[in-house]
């Protein structure tokens, strides 16, 4: 443990000497204000780095992280998640909200195997917000549901959390005036690929394909 803490302390020193100095002007601008364009909701999993995946700079993403990239419905206790969503949308004025799941998600594996959570009552309760996604997967596969369906569960969970987002008044109001857009992504840890849910196709497709098509349609309508 001490050895790893030494690594962190060394990292802070190196950041101050190198990265901070290289972007000193940026950090000076960020010292008194922020204006992120995107609210990025993802899992707490240590293998996920939103800024690395999207190649964004400090100040560009407003990030919520929790087990299973979950958004409790507005009527349910959501702790800091609900407050953070409201602040991002109503105060910071983000234009896009991304819910990004990921492969090999331990939270979704737990939701699929509730007996494994017997000694984790808080985790079990939290994953209750994924039950509707689990119900959809179970309805398709019944007693044959197994670990082979984990990706399907991960995708269904992303779609469910997007629906939960729409129950938040701040989000619903901005969607009504087309001032905010919701996006459902899944990041593949093994390949680095990011897929995006395509409402038109009813499935997840490579993120570049979806946004290229989306831009084309937008340009045709303009």
Considering the chains and any ligands shown, give keywords for the structure.
222 residues, six-stranded mixed sheet, 49% helix, alpha/beta, single chain, 10 helices
In percent terms, what proportion of residues is strand? 15-25%
N-to-C SSE string, H for helix and E for strand: HHEHEHEHHHHHEEEH
How is the CATH topology named?
Answer: Beta-carbonic Anhydrase, Chain A
User: Would you tell me the overall average pLDDT?
Assistant: 93
Strand order of the largest sheet: 2-1-3-4-5-6
CATH superfamily: Carbonic anhydrase
- The separation of the N and C termini measures 57 Å
Sequence stretches where pLDDT stays below 50 over 5 or more residues: 216-222
Count the beta strands.
Answer: 6
CATH class: Alpha Beta
Total individual domains: 1
Query: What is the CATH architecture descriptor?
Result: 3-Layer(aba) Sandwich
Inertia-based shape: globular
Q: Whole-number radius of gyration?
A: 19 Å
Which structural category do the helix and sheet elements fall into?
Answer: alpha/beta
Q: Bin the helical content.
A: 40-55%
Report on the biggest sheet: 6 strands, mixed
Number of helices: 10
Write structural notes for this entry:
With 222 residues, the protein is α/β, with parallel strands linked by helices. It has a single domain, classed as Carbonic anhydrase (Beta-carbonic Anhydrase, Chain A, 3-Layer(aba) Sandwich), CATH 3.40.1050.10. The chain contains ten helices and six strands, in the order H-H-E-H-E-H-E-H-H-H-H-H-E-E-E-H. The longest helix has 21 residues. The C terminus is likely disordered.
